[in-house]
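## Example pair
The file below holds two records. Each record gives the amino-acid sequence first, followed by its structure token line.
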Amino acid sequence: MNPDAYLEALHQVPVREEATVQAAARLLQTLVNNLVNLEYNQSSNSSLVSALEENISKAADLIDEINGESLALDKIESKQKILSLNASIEAARAGEFGRGFAVVASEFGKLAVNSGEINKSIKTSLKSLTSVINELEEQSK
């Protein structure tokens, strides 16, 4: 091997090593960036999960409150039906004079039935919502 070829070979070796070092440095930088991003995402996800759990709890509390109000509506519906029946009986006793009162009693009874049906629909929706809330709660764990 002549001296010029040897010197040329020596000059190429550091270039290859420098390129390798630069590639390794870029790879290390990428790894560090990915690690920082992962840590940030974990922290962010933890905050999101905490917020989700808090909102799920609030939603469950609201559902319980609405269920309580629905039970109160059940009692009101029951009383409306009794009042409607009593009004119909009194209208029948009054005969011809109670005819107008009988119409009012009948309409009052229809309102009781309609409000009962709406309340049943609300209960069905609440059951579905409770199921969704429970699923969300399980998924957030």
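Second record, same layout:
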Amino acid sequence: MSRCPPGTFANKTSGQCEDCSEGEKQQECVRCHADCASCDGPGLDDCDVCRNAKAVRYNGECLAECLNSTYYDETANECRGHEPSSCLSCDIDRRRDASGHCVWVNQCSLHSYKDQDGECRQCHKLCHRCSGPGKDNCLNCKEPHFLLNSTCVQQCPVGYYAEDEDERVCERCHFTCQSCVGRHSVQCRTCKPGYFKQGSSCVETCSER
């Protein structure tokens, strides 16, 4: 057989057509990274399930243990807590505010910041929290805006995608994507110059079908 039917791929070892994993969208199978038991892309940070049962996932990567300043979420078998609003308790001289952030005990309330004289001043109107008066001093944004390099924008620019699961921020696309729906290599909408669209990935050379 010169070509396998859609939803299957050619196993080069056996020479047989085998079914692709459930959820495969491109009608071709791409091997997961060696650390992944299942994945949504070929990279080491594309794992959905880790091959090592004792490993934990952090941002799609399989690790031996959670990093400092993160905690283990047993339900999802993931490390969490890098988000500023994930704090359960705070260091000495800090308190947990209503949004889950750790702030200094004498820190100003939301929508305000402390100036050089120790006085609380109002943030820019787009900022939810801030470090100064300007529109480029935002720490996070009021809805429906997204944070991009300390500035609140209505929509993320080309090369970024909107991440609103925890903090509303613009995250950079995979380096092959011109525009995207997520950070992985298989979440491209359009490709950067020099790359070709294949399924939802951007590749330097198209593979033969």
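Notes on the second record: Residues 22-27 have pLDDT under 50 and may be disordered. The first strand starts at residue 8 and ends at 10.
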